[in-house]
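User: quick one, fold this
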Amino acid sequence: MQVPLEIAFQNVDAQEWAENDIRERVADLERIYDRIISCRVRVQQRATNRSNSIPPVVHIDIGLPGQNDIVVSQEPERLLQKFQHPDLHNAIHEAFRVAEQRLISIKEQQTDRSREWSHEDIKLAGQVAEIVPKRDFGFLLTNTGGLLYFHREALLVGDFDTLQPGDEVFYVEADGDTGPIATNVRTKATQ
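Assistant:
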């Protein structure tokens, strides 16, 4: 983590075993998702009754790069529904169980996206259909017979000024402002 772990106890005595348990569970979260920026854990006793049967709330706030923070808060009502006699141990366990599930879900979504955009999956073959050098764009003929617009800036490998109709290229199809376009265009001769 870029920011050191913060653990706070409010209206409840700080207990060494609880702090150690929280540190171990945060280490587990880092093993699941190694790009965690920050993690704040707050243990708070919001209410009490005569029998001291209301468990504390464990609130976890996990900062991730490029994403909204993951916020988990195990409310006493949920713990009372799930456990016969919930305590701090149950509250910590449940809060971190939910945090782990959310991190795993985010990691799976990112893995799916990276698989979706892997180089081998998106590299399509086509050929130059038309070039308009004075206006810095052209059209590619796809293997299905369609035409895709591409801009000079989309050509990653090759020289736009020497492209000729019929030149074979590889490209990525993407959504543009007015429909599908070709991006990441590479001339086949330079592959």
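User: anything notable?
Assistant: Confidence is low (pLDDT under 50) at residues 116-121.
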